[in-house]
Amino acid sequence: DLITSPSLRAWPEWSLAYEDEAVRIWSASGGGGPVWVGPDLDTPAHATQWPTIRSDTGREKIFDAQINEPAWVVVSETYMSGWRAFIRPWGADEDAEVALDVQPVLGGLQGIRVESVDALIDQAIDQGTAPPTFYLHAIDRAIIAGDAVRVDDLLDRLEALMTSDPPEIFGAIKDRIQAGIQAWRASSNPDLTQRAFESQLLEVEQANWTIRLVYSPSSFQIGLFVSFLGAVLALFMPGVWLWRSFVASGDSNTITRVARNSLAPIILNLFNRGIDFAFALVMLRILGPEDAGIYFYAGFIFVWFDIFTNFGLDLYLTREVARDRSRAARYLFSTSTLRFGLTLVGVILLAAFLLARQSFIHPPLSTSGLIAIILLYVGLFPGSLSKGMTSLFYAFEQAEYPAAITTLSTISKTVLGLIVLVLGYGVIGLAAASIVTNVLTLALLLWGGRRLLASSRADSRSETDEAPRRARWAGLADFPLMRGMVGESWPLLLNHFLATIFFQIDVLIIEAMHGTTMVGLYSVAYKWLSALNIIPAFFTQAMLPVMSRQAHEDRDALKRTYTLAIKLLLLIALPVAVVFTFLAYFLTGILGGSQYLPDGAIATQVMIWSIPFGWINSLTQYVLVALDLQRRITRAFAIAVTFNIVSNLIFIPQYGYQAAALTTIASEFMLLLPFVRLLHQALGRLNWLAMIGRPAAAAGVMFGAMWLGWSLHPAVGLVAGAFAYLAALLVLRPLSAAEIERLRPLLPGRIRNLARPFLSR
């Protein structure tokens, strides 16, 4: 019986509205509308209000409600698992939304619990999205607490808000609020409660909210991702065929080789990032900020041990084999043996770290976080061997092959990740999927690299008998060579580790002081930066073989190569930073959804300005390695890391991720200073004003044009910025005639002739 069922909270005065052979429909006489708000779930007859429904498309409902204390919002529709709810201050846009849980109540209706009303109001005030009635609510709480200082601060901010915003936002209550503020200021009554009563300041106190209920099931997102993946494969396979058909793989001039070995990896890895971002659209929404923060933190710890097991051997292998390809197999097998030994040592270090982490930092890492870190470490060795094979391809200047393999691995990783998320395995499943991906990547790279190893073994057999017998067959590890590797690679390991700590130590500090949720919000900015940092990473890696030879044969040529490379990187980095500054909220909303706003967007807006300095540092570090100055680089990293850690420890406790983002920019600049000093000592003075000035001026023009156009419409701002930047480049001409001449072989014939008079000076 409906009335007596113990499994259902029954409303009083149920009446039978409809009955046939298949169904009975009951109605509650106390009901007043499809949505109601109340302090509990006993009955809608005791509801405090019936919210105003602004729109209802079936998939999305938007309604306004006044909620001054913890309450339930009940929607009289059947609960389904795909519904998501978001709350924001009345009058604010979706950037100010906070996610709420939707749960089944009253036997199957949709229930939304609004619990921390005071915290939501304080957050809206801090973010500048609160209407004036929110300030009155906060003032009321401060009066009850007897906090006169807080009351005065809120009144000052409310008064400033009233004068800065147009009156129509506040409607008829504006005059009443201003009169209440004036009466409060005029009163000298020390009793805050009595003073509020006399001034009638709180008469219009309200906490008005807009609640958005949207049906967004994971099945829809998964289907969208699978469709996207199908489109990716449809583009990838013809793209590989076109590249093999029309792009020559033989030796040609230096610029063409560098372009071929940087362009393919950059395009393919940006392609991979597109796949990763499409997967992140699903992953971030399924995991939520807290679990996303746990997985990001586990990946951050994994990177430490990945650096340790690589031991700087990637750079070392590329540099040495580029100078003498006949020794490729010997170097590969020796570095692989060294990687295996380092992986075993890393097990002890990982156990010690996890023990210390769980013992001394509160709260301890969750069980899922611990298991994820351990599983990521299991996949470490095959991943490290894959990096060795990739370095070998770069040394032979055949970078497009490992780039294509990485695309296949990315597809595999995302498909497996999607499966484990759908099955409910969360961060543990994602970590386990990475093991399969790493093994698959290694197998494909070994298969593709067998010809390189075979040719190297043939060359090694032609060497004189002076070589030790055990090293003639390059398939055996050369232990004397390994001892030399340790000495040569140790500075590269230290530099790589310091560079990572310098860029990511803030994640560790934020997690320890503010928890994994803030790390999850901050991770959105990291995802965008990691995607963009593909450009300098693969560009400089492709240039390393060329720069390594120039460092030993023609340092003037190296100086010219470096100057041109800096200009090209800045011509990309600066406009990208400008665009991301304006699009940060939009991009964060697409990637993670409104639950990552506004914090993820603010972090992105700030951190994006680290890329001009960071890209310069990335190239400069490789040039210094080519000059065999890796030991002296360590001092520069030590200075920058010390600055980074001290700054983060001082400011993160109070300012959180904002301080971390600003410190990232300052740290990149601090690293650039000693890098430049080392470079000048090795190559002579460089004209930095000529390298940086014109690209920076063009980006400044672009920023101004976008700022003016953005006030009209974002699309107008984007178009205005793009045209302004191109026009500024045509006027300023950042590349010299000699530099244009070096780049001309990369352009099609007609464009080659047209570009020369416009870009060179």
What does this structure look like?
The protein is of the alpha+beta class and 761 residues long. It has four domains: 1-30, no CATH class; 35-216, no CATH class; 217-686, no CATH class; 692-761, no CATH class. The protein has helices at residues 117-127, 132-145, 148-164, 173-186, 192-199, 218-246, 254-310, 313-323, 328-360, 367-378, 380-395, 400-422, 426-448, 450-461, 469-472, 479-514, 516-532, 534-553, 555-592, 599-607, 611-626, 630-655, 657-683, 688-710, 714-732, 737-743, 749-759, and strands at 14-19, 24-28, 35-38, 52-56, 60-66, 71-78, 83-89, 98-100, 102-105, 109-114, 208-215. Strands 4-5-11-7-8 form a five-stranded antiparallel sheet. A hairpin with a 3-residue loop joins strand 9 and strand 10 (109-114). Helix 2 runs antiparallel to helix 3, helix 7 (254-310) crosses helix 18 and helix 16 (479-514) crosses helix 17. The termini are far apart.
How would the blueprint of this fold be written?
Elements: E1 14-19, E2 24-28, E3 35-38, E4 52-56, E5 60-66, E6 71-78, E7 83-89, E8 98-100, E9 102-105, E10 109-114, H1 117-127, H2 132-145, H3 148-164, H4 173-186, H5 192-199, E11 208-215, H6 218-246, H7 254-310, H8 313-323, H9 328-360, H10 367-378, H11 380-395, H12 400-422, H13 426-448, H14 450-461, H15 469-472, H16 479-514, H17 516-532, H18 534-553, H19 555-592, H20 599-607, H21 611-626, H22 630-655, H23 657-683, H24 688-710, H25 714-732, H26 737-743, H27 749-759
Antiparallel strand pairs: 1-2, 3-6, 4-5, 5-11, 6-10, 7-8, 7-11, 9-10
Helix pairs in contact: 1-2, 2-3, 4-5, 6-7, 6-12, 7-9, 7-10, 7-11, 7-12, 7-16, 7-17, 7-18, 8-9, 8-11, 8-18, 9-11, 9-16, 10-13, 11-13, 12-13, 16-17, 16-22, 16-23, 17-20, 18-19, 18-21, 19-20, 19-21, 19-24, 20-23, 21-23, 22-23, 24-25
